[in-house]
Amino acid sequence: xxxxxxxxxxxxxxxxxxxxxxxxxxxxxxxxxxxxxxxxxxxxxxxxxxxxxxxxxxxxxxxxxxxxxxxxxxxxxxxxxxxxxxxxxxxxxxxxxxxxxxxxxxxxxxxxxxxxxxxxxxxxxxxxxxxxxxxxxxxxxxxxxxxxxxxxxxxxxxxxxxxxxxxxxxxxxxxxxxxxxxxxxxxxxxxxxxxxxxxxxxxxxxxxxxxxxxxxxxxxxxxxxxxxxxxxxxxxxxxxxxxxxxxxxxxxxxxxxxxxxxxxxxxxxxxxxxxxxxxxxxxxxxxxxxxxxxxxxxxxxxxxxxxxxxxxxxxxxxxxxxxxxxxxxxxxxxxxxxxxxxxxxxxxxxxxxxxxxxxxxxxxxxxxxx
Length: 370
Hints:
The structure is a single chain. The protein is 42% helix and 16% strand. It has 2 domains: 2-171 and 333-369, 3-Layer(aba) Sandwich (Rossmann fold); 174-329, Glycogen Phosphorylase B (Rossmann fold), CATH 3.40.50.2000. The protein contains 15 helices and 13 strands. Helix 8 crosses helix 13 and helix 11 packs across helix 14 (320-330). It starts with a strand and ends in a 17-residue tail after the last helix. It is globular, with a radius of gyration of 20 Å. By secondary structure, the protein is of the alpha/beta class.
């Protein structure tokens, strides 16, 4: 198939990844190409996944319009709207068999529904009003949606029937996260260092539990780091920088447990399955879909450092093989890509065989792809 993938344009789709959305899109493009598809990524012009990139804008928008300062402003909204207005005709004229939309912008789903463009839109975040209205308007037998967890499916579609939506969990390449049979007794935290990710709570819990902690990730909010994280750094809590590739994998695999501390409605938790693949059990703040993802390979707590310290002490005793087995069974990139390919086929077939009156027949994926 000739596939257009639209990336989120806040950050480049390139290593080192700023977050889970960038990692997902990068692996999606590479995985589809490996499976024989002709893939073009439409994203920020400073993206690099090793294949064709067509720029939606010259550089990612967070460089000029940092999200923490410009989110919801007319200036950022206008910047994005102008870019996507330029993009949509290129999608229609590009002779693509299907479009996989990861953009979180409101234009593509409505465009697909109106112009019978086969499209699969992946919803990687909790619902927000502008995009939720576009999702409600943009569903059609050829314009389908995915969420990465059952919790998010219910949130986006108000726990009602979702005839054009399906859960497709995120998947990782197990070769990038090899299993390590034992850890060194330390805890690890990785992700974007920003208040909603709860890095400070991980540091507080590790100090209470008396378990050394290494923190890895990009400092997205410098003020937060300086006031909430830096004062906690000492011999027991260390910041190791924004590692990538093998360096990050080796750092994670050495540890004995991952602290996962979302303070928002986390849609999935890619960092959790990456660590679990290496054999790390999880001590988690139970927000969002983390119990759906980690299951019995984790211990859970509320957003309280004392509770999380107790979960940390308990989680470190979970067998490492149990964490790895769960990822092998549910969260590989092969499972994810296979599920997407089924949906691509559904969207393509619907353009040629479905009348203009929307069909609300619920379709099912094979159990192996759920």
